[in-house]
Amino acid sequence: MAILACCFYLLLIVLLGYTLLSVIRPSNQLTIVQLTGLCPVVGAGTMGLLLFWISLMGFAPSRQVLAAIGVVTVAVLVVLKNKQRLPGIKLVANDLDEGDGWIVIPVGIIMAGMAVIVAGAVTSPLTEWDALAIWAFKAKVLVHAALCPTPIYFHDTSLSYSHLDYPLMVPFLTAGAYAAMGTVDDQTGKLVSAFLDVLLVPMVYLGLRWKLRRLPAACLSAMVAVLPMMLRYGGTGYADLPLAMFYAGSVFYVSRWIDQQQWKDLTLAILFSVFAAFTKNEGLVLSLMNGVVILACGLWAARRRGWMAATMFFAAWLAMDAPWLIWSRNLPHTHEDYGSKLLSSQLVTHLPRLKEIIPAMVVQTAEFQVWGLFWIMVGMLALLGWRALARPYVLALWILLGLHLMSYALAYSVTPWDIAVLMPMTLDRLFLHAVPAAAFLAGWHWAEAGVGHQRVGKMKQTSTVKEALDI
Amino acid sequence: MLLALAQLCWLQLQPESKFHQFCAVATESATDRAALTEQEQFDRIARQTGNGNVLLKLAGYAKTNPVVEHSLGYFYFRTSYALYPRRVYAASADQVINDGRDIMRIGFNPDPQWLQAHDVHSVLTFGNDYPGGETPRLEILPPFQDPAGTPTNPSGGN
C-alpha cells in the first residue's frame, strides 16, 4: 500500500511537470524522452519548491496539501486543453536514421543501470552517513512540522552534524512521499531518491540529442548510466545526483539560449538554476555562474536581448529563491561555512593549498575504477571536434565547467577538514556534479567533428520530422 | 567511445561492482539476511527505548579512546534519526556536535532535574571497560518523583 501511494505521488510529480511544460511549451510535441525525462525533472523541482513555500505558510507536507496541488494541476490542465495549448505526445519516431536499430543496445544498458539503481534503493535500508544524517533526517523533521514557526531542530547545534543550513529540495521531495504514504517509511521513501537519480540519464540524452543523432547520443547516455559513480550513489538518498540532474538542465538550456535566443529556453534555464540552488549549496554557486555567463555572452554580443535576459535571469532567480535565502539567513552554520570563507581573506591566504588540490583533481579523472575512460574520452572528443570551440554555446559551457571545477578547488582550499582525508572521501561525488556538462561537451564536439551530427538536409525535408527532432 | 562504453560495462562485471553487490544481496540465504547489520542493531535499540527522550552516556574507555569516535558518531546520528521527533541528548542544545569526537569532548552528564525537565526516560550507555566492547546498553529510568513522592509524567523536551 505504501509503495502504491509513493507511486501516485511520483505520478503527481510527472503531471505537475507536464502542466508546467505545457505552459512554457519548449516544443509543440513532447517526445517519449521528454515525457519520461523532462516532465518528471521539472515536476520534481516544482514540487520541492511548492512544498517549501506551502510549509512556510504553516502547512507541513500532508495528503491534503498534495491533494490541493493535484486539484490545481488538473484544473490548469483542463484550462490548457480547452485553449488547445496542451503539447501533443509523440510516441513513435518517424525520422529514424540508418543504423538506429542498434539503439536497442545502449537503451538496454541504460535500462539495466536504472534497474540496478531502483532495485538497490527499494531493497536495502538507508545506510549511508550523509544520506541518513543530513537528507533523510531533514525529511523526517519537515513531515512532522511546518517551517512556520521554525522547528527547534533548525537551531539545535547539538544536531549540527546534520548541517542545519543545507537547502531543502531533496528533504521536501522525500517528505512529500512520506505524506503520501501516511508514514515515515524510509526504505520505500528511497524510491524517490532512485526516481530523482535515474532522471539524470534522460536529461543527458536530451542535451546530447540536440546536436547528435540518436545512436551516438544514446551511447554517450549509456556511458553515464553505467558509470560506477552513478551506480554507487544512485538510489542511496544523497542529493548529489539530483543536483547533477537539475544542473544538467540548467547548463543545457543556458547553452540553447546562447545559441538560439529563444525565451522558452531562458525560462527553463532559470527554472533549473533555481532548482539546483535549492538542492545543495554548490547548486547556489553554480546557478549564479549560469547567470554570469548569460550576462557575459550578452555583453560580448552587445545585444540588448542579452542584457534583458541577464536581468530577467537574476530577477526571477532572486524572486524564487528569496524565501529560502530569507528564511535560512539566521540558521547556524557549521564550522565549514564555505560561503563566508570564500568571501573572506582566507581565500587568498589558503591559495597555496591549490598546489595539492589541483593535481588531486586531475588524478581523479584518471581513476579507472571510478570513472572508467569517461574523462579521457571527453578530452579526446574535444580534441577531435576542436572546431566547436568557435561556437559561443560550446565556449560558454567550457567556461561554466571551468568555473565549476575552480569553485570546488577553492572550497577545498578553505575547508577546516584535513584535505588529505576529505578529498578522497568527497571528490568523486563532486565530480559527479560535472558529469552532465562534460558529457554535453563530448557530444557537441563530436557532432562538430562530423561523426555524430544530425543530417540537416534530411531534417528539413518535412515539418513532421522537424517537430520530432525539436527537443 | 564504444571502447569506453565497453570498459564501463566490463567494470560492472567485476566482483566489487555495484551490480555484483546487488546480485549477491538478491541471492543471499535466509540465514545471512537474518544476521543483523550494525544499523539494524542500533535501530532495534532505539525502538526499545519506549516513550520519552533518551540520554546518551559514555562509559569506560569510550570516554577517551579515539578509536570509538567513528562508531560513536554513527550511533548518535542513527539513533537521533530513528527516534525523531523524540530526542537523543548527547549535549545541551547550544553545544555543537559535528562528530563522535565532539561527543567525547563534551562528556555530557546532566543532573536529574535536567533529565526531568527534558523528559528523558532512558539512558543509552555507549562503551564499557572491555576493549572492543562498545555495544550500547539501554537503561530505562525509574519514573520521576515529584516533591510529594508520586510519579510524574513530565512533558519537557521536544
Descriptive account of the structure:
The complex is a heterodimer of chains A (471) and B (158). Chain A is built from 23 helices and two strands. Chain A has 471 residues and is mainly α. Chain A has one domain. In chain A, strands 1-2 form a two-stranded parallel ribbon. In chain A, helix 6 packs across helix 7 and helix 11 runs parallel beside helix 21. The longest helix of chain A is centred in the last third of the chain and has 30 residues. Chain B has one domain. Chain B is built from seven helices and four strands, in the order H-H-H-H-E-H-E-H-H-E-E. Chain B has a four-stranded mixed β-sheet with strand order 2-1-3-4. In chain B, strand 1, helix 5 and strand 2 form a beta-alpha-beta unit. In chain B, helix 4 packs across helix 5 and helix 5 crosses helix 6. The longest helix of chain B has 15 residues. Chain B is elongated and about 70 Å long. At the A-B interface, helix 4, helix 5, helix 9, helix 10 and helix 19 of A face helix 1, helix 2 and helix 5 of B.
Question: What is the element layout, followed by pairings?
Answer:
The complex is a heterodimer of chains A (471) and B (158).
Chain A: H1 2-24, E1 29-31, H2 32-56, H3 63-82, E2 88-90, H4 104-123, H5 129-144, H6 169-181, H7 186-198, H8 200-209, H9 214-225, H10 228-233, H11 240-260, H12 263-277, H13 281-301, H14 304-327, H15 338-342, H16 346-349, H17 354-365, H18 368-371, H19 374-384, H20 392-413, H21 419-448, H22 456-459, H23 463-469
Parallel strand pairs in A: 1-2
Helix pairs in contact in A: 1-2, 1-3, 1-6, 1-7, 2-6, 2-8, 2-12, 4-7, 4-9, 5-6, 6-7, 8-9, 8-11, 8-21, 9-21, 11-12, 11-13, 11-20, 11-21, 12-13, 12-14, 13-14, 13-20, 17-20, 17-21, 19-21, 20-21
Chain B: H1 2-12, H2 18-26, H3 30-34, H4 38-47, E1 53-58, H5 69-83, E2 88-89, H6 100-106, H7 112-117, E3 120-126, E4 137-140
Parallel strand pairs in B: 1-2, 1-3
Antiparallel strand pairs in B: 3-4
